[in-house]
Amino acid sequence: MATQFATVEHLLGVPPRMGDARLGLANSIQSGLPVSALDHLADEVAPNDQRFKFRLIPKATLDRRKKSASRLLTSEEGDRLARIAKVFSFAMDIYKDKDKVRAFLGRPHAMLDDKPPLDVALATGPGADAVINLLGRAAYGGGV
Prior knowledge:
Structural class: mainly alpha
Shape: globular
Number of strands: 0
Low-confidence stretches: none
């Protein structure tokens, strides 16, 4: 389970939704996360990379979202953000230190075809699952 300060909701800068806790985040994503969730996640995951957020949402698309009346992300965009927040949160449970998590996510890994875990997680949902499985090996003694 994620530490208090590294929950997916915290990483996205959105309060947990009341009601059914199991579907709170899913409902928030479906309703549309605020554009600010991207900035909040980028500040946590890659604070020194000004272009990181454009790896999640193309610059032109992000500019349109920021100018829209709702200032909300689509459910697909929110899902992509939540996927990375989930990976970062799980890594925080293992490493307990943001700098160590960032180092792990940015370093090529042999069990991911020598690709950095962050790149694998950004590419697809199954890629994020592979990174979480790799982190699970570390949590249960398999090493990473």
